[in-house]
Amino acid sequence: MLNQNSDVGVAGAPAVPIKPSDRDRVVAIAMIAVSSIILSFGGLIVRNIEEADPWQINFYRASGLSVAIAVVLAVNYRGEAVDRIRRSGLAGVIAGGSLAAAGMSYIQAITHTTVANTMFTLAAIPFITAAMAWLFLQERLRLATVVSMAMAFIGIMLMVVDGFGLGATYGNLMALATALFFSIFAIIVRKNRNIDMLPALLISGIAIMLTTLSVRYGQLSIGWHDLMLCIVWGGLMSGFANWMFIAASRHLAAAELTLFMLLEFALAPIWVWLFLSEGPTRWSLIGGLVVITSVCGRTLLELHRDGHRLKRGRPSPG
Asked: Mean per-residue pLDDT for 95-117?
């Protein structure tokens, strides 16, 4: 749980009030990193699905997500759960719709091209988000973030130049659509950080289910093996990881939120390479290493800076 009121004292001195964002930013960064690692196993799950097609995967993954978020809302807010959904308003609907579009595009992408190709394309999310945040939120980027993004961009270029020829055009376009829709979701969540956007996840799941039903009604029967994988992916992995993303969005800039997500895009091809021998090329691996290094370096720098400030009892400069 993110800390809202933290006082840290220096040995032998009275506690000095610390700006809440100091410790909260450290926790938020850790949450984004953990959620990215969890989601990075999505490609491995898709490759282990035996018979289900993209629409069926979408439906049952969204079903798991919807049930998980509904349970969280019911436990957290009890009789006020419906009111919480209503309070998310138009922003929640648009955010949920954007996330739903991103989710459906993602399944189409990853089932029509390689995991590496999909993830390398999705690595454009931080740059799309940064541009949108600058245009619509007037968010200024810290120098450390700009440097990290520049390094990550170099890694992405190495991967894209080497990897685009590996997949079909349709899969690449769907991956690009995923990046665009998720960036919109990130901007809306960040802009409305004072509103509980958890209901947007439920709206997303329901939107995917309704869309799938309209396309594949009567053709959604799948085996138990595939069903369990979809439920685990949607209910446990996506539900938990997206909850952490929304919680962290209150303490990080939009560009920072998606920058740390690059870990997911760099790690996902590694898992399918290690476990299923769907290996990226040498240059793809080099590019992925550059991306991971840039994100890890940015994370360690942030942790060191805020940790040092907490010890001294100094507020953040903002």
From this structure: 90
